[in-house]
Design brief:
Elements: H1 9-17, H2 25-29, H3 36-43, H4 45-56, E1 65-70, E2 73-78, E3 81-82, H5 84-97, E4 101-106, E5 112-116, H6 117-133, E6 142-145, H7 151-161, E7 166-168, H8 175-185, E8 189-193, E9 195-198, E10 201-204, H9 206-214, E11 221-225, E12 239-241, H10 242-245, E13 258-259, E14 263-269, E15 277-282, H11 284-297, E16 305-308, H12 315-327, E17 331-335, H13 346-354, E18 358-361, H14 363-372, H15 375-378, E19 387-390, H16 397-407, E20 414-416, E21 451-454, E22 465-471, E23 481-482, H17 486-494, E24 501-509, E25 515-520, E26 525-527, E27 530-532, H18 534-542, E28 547-557, E29 561-570, H19 578-591, E30 600-603, H20 617-625, H21 639-647
Parallel strand pairs: 4-17, 6-7, 6-8, 7-14, 8-11, 11-12, 16-17, 16-18, 18-19, 19-20, 29-30
Antiparallel strand pairs: 1-2, 3-13, 4-5, 9-10, 14-15, 15-23, 21-22, 22-24, 24-25, 26-27, 28-29
Bound molecules: 5'-O-(acetylsulfamoyl)adenosine.
Length: 653
Amino acid sequence: MSVERGTGPEIENLLAERRTFPPDPAFAARANATAELYEEAEADYEAFWARQARERLSWFTEPTQTLEWDLPFAKWFTGGQLNVTYNCVDRHVEAGNGDRVAYHWIGEPGETRTLTYADLQRETAKAANALLELGVRTGDRVAIYMPMIPELPIAMLACARIGAPHTVVFGGFSAEALSGRINDCGAKVLITADGGWRRGKKVGLKHHADEAMASAPSIEHSIVVNRLGDDVNMVHGRDRWWHDIVDGQSDDCPPVPVDSEHMLYLLYTSGTTAKPKGILHTSAGYLLGTAFTHWAVFDLKPDDIYWCAADIGWVTGHSYIVYGPLANGATGLLYEGAPDAPTWDRWWEIVEQHKVTILYCAPTAIRAFMKQGEEIPKAHDLSSLRVLGSVGEPINPEAWRWYRDVIGGGTTPVVDTWWQTETGQIMISPLPGVTTTKPGSATFPLPGIDADVVDGDGNSVPKGSGGYLVLKRPWPGMLRGIYGDPERYRETYWSRFEGMYFAGDGAKRDEDGYLWLLGRVDDVMNVAGHRISTTEVESALVDHQSVAEAAVVGKTDPISGQAIFAFVILKAGQEASDHLGVQLREHVAYVIGPIARPKFLMFVPDLPKTRSGKIMRRLLRDIAEGRQLGDVTTLADATVVDTIRENSGKAED
Ligand code: 7RM
C-alpha cells in the first residue's frame, strides 16, 4: 500500500506506524486458511472443532462427545482414543511418506543428521522399548533434560508412544530446578545427555543431573545420550547409556491407545510464588490445537521447509517444533546452536543453505539481529522465506518492519502470535492469507477462539481502550490444570473475572478492533522470551549467606525485552561491594540458571512495603526505569523510596 512521504524522519516514522499490510493477492489465492473459517467457528465453535478433530486426527476410537465444560475444567473429545506418536509419526509412514524428512538437524559444531518419518518411527519405537525395559508404564512420568539433539524429540515421542507423560526441563536450568520439577511430578526415569554445545563450548549436563537425582528419590534410572563423548560419572544399576539400552532394542513397539484426556505432558512455568506450576496438557485436544494452528497460521504446504528457532524446553518448542509440525507431516529444521555462534550470520547461512520457507522466532532474537546491522542478513539469499512468525513477547513496530523488510524482502507476511504455556496453542494471530496486519499488533483471535479485553469489573472495554486480556470460552489445547493442585488452577486463572480465563497480560483494542498486547500485569518477568518469577530470583538471592532480603523487577531492555533488576538488603555486619554484587548475581545463575542472573543489582537499606508487609514492586519498577513515582499512599514508610533513589545511580551492569 502507498504511504505519503513526510518532510522529516519523525513524520515518516509516524506515518509508518499507521501503515497496514493487506495480504498479497497471490498468497491469499492459495492460502490454507480463508475468512470462512471465522464464520464457521462463530456459528458453532464446538461443531467447528469437532470437524477439525475428525479431519486432522487419526483415532483408534472416535469420540462420542466434543466438549464437557464444567468451568474451569474442560474435557475435549471424550470417548475417543488415539495415540499422539501414531498421529505424529506412524500414520505418515503408513501413508507412504516414510522417506519424507521430518527433521534436518544441525549441531552447533556444524555436523548434520537427517531424520525421515521412517527413521523417527524406528527410533521412537526403540526408545519406547528401552523405557518399557526400565519399568516405565502408561501413566508413569519421565523427566527429560537434554540439549537440542534429535534424541530430545525422539524421547518425547517415545514417552507418548507408551502413554508416559513427559516433563521436559530446559537444559539451561540448574540441578535444583531440575530436582524440584522431578519431585513435584514423581518422575521415575530421567533422560539426559553428557552435555551439549553452546557458543563453541561444551556445556555439561550429567553432573547437574547427578546432583538433581541425589535429591530426587522417585528416580530409578537415567538414560544418558553420549553427545560430547565426555567421560561422565555413571552410577552402576541406575544410569544407562542411550547407545547401550536403546540401539539394540526391537524397532517394533505398537503405539498404546490412550483416552483423549490422557496426560501428554507437564511443563513447569514460574508463577508469582516460588513453586513452579506444572502446567498439564492432555492428548487429543492439545494435538488438534497445535496441528490446526500450525497449518492455518504458517500456511504449511507439503514442500515447505519450516524452522522454529525456539528451544524444545519451552512450550513453543513442544507445540511448534514437535507436536504441531509432526502431526502435519512437516519437514523442519532442528538447530542446536545460538544465533551468534560462531558468527551473527549463522541463521542466515542456514536459511540460505536449506531454503527455509517459514521462520518462527522471538522478538528478542530479531532485536539482537537489528543491533548487528542489516548488512549481515543482506549478504545471504533469503528469498525462499514466505512466512515469518514472532512469539514470546510483544514485538515493537520497528522490529516488526525490520523483520518484514530485511529478512522478508519487504513482501513476506509477518504473523505475530500471542499464546502461553497454558493455552498450548496460538490464540491471537493474523492468518497470513486473510488478515490485514499492523506492525506490532497480534491482530485478532483465531477461528474458534473468543478473546476479549475487559476492565477491572470484567466488562468489555470500548474500542480504543486498554485493559485485561481474557478468554471467554474453552479451546482444545487449553491446560487442564496445575499438576496436583486444582485449587491453585482455579485461583490462578479463573478467579479474577467470573467465568473467564485471565491470561495475566494487559492488552489494548484499537479503533479498528485490533488487539495490541501490553505485557504482563503481574510480577513475572519476561527475559528474552523466558518467564521468570520475581519470587524465585528473590528466593535465590536470600539463599546467599550475606542477604537479608531482596526484591527484583523487570527493567525494559532493548535486547532481551526485560532485564532483571535486583534490590538487595544485606544482613547486619555485611559490607556492600562490587565484588559481592558480582557474587550474588552469580549465585542466582547457579541456583536458577544463567537466564535468571540479574543484569542490575543495587544494595539498599530498606524496601518499599505496604502495611501488611508486601513489597511494592511497582515502585521499584519506577525506580529501575528512572520514572516519576506512581501512587505512594499505601507505603508503610515513604522515606524508603527517597533513600533508594539517592542510591540508584550506583546500580551495576
Ligand atoms: C508462547 C509463550 C507467555 C507470555 C504471555 C505474554 C508473552 C507471548 C506474545 C506475548 C505479546 C506476543 N509462552 N507473549 N507471545 N506478548 N505478544 N505475540 O511465550 O508461557 O512462555 O509466555 O509471553 O506475556 O502471557 S510463555
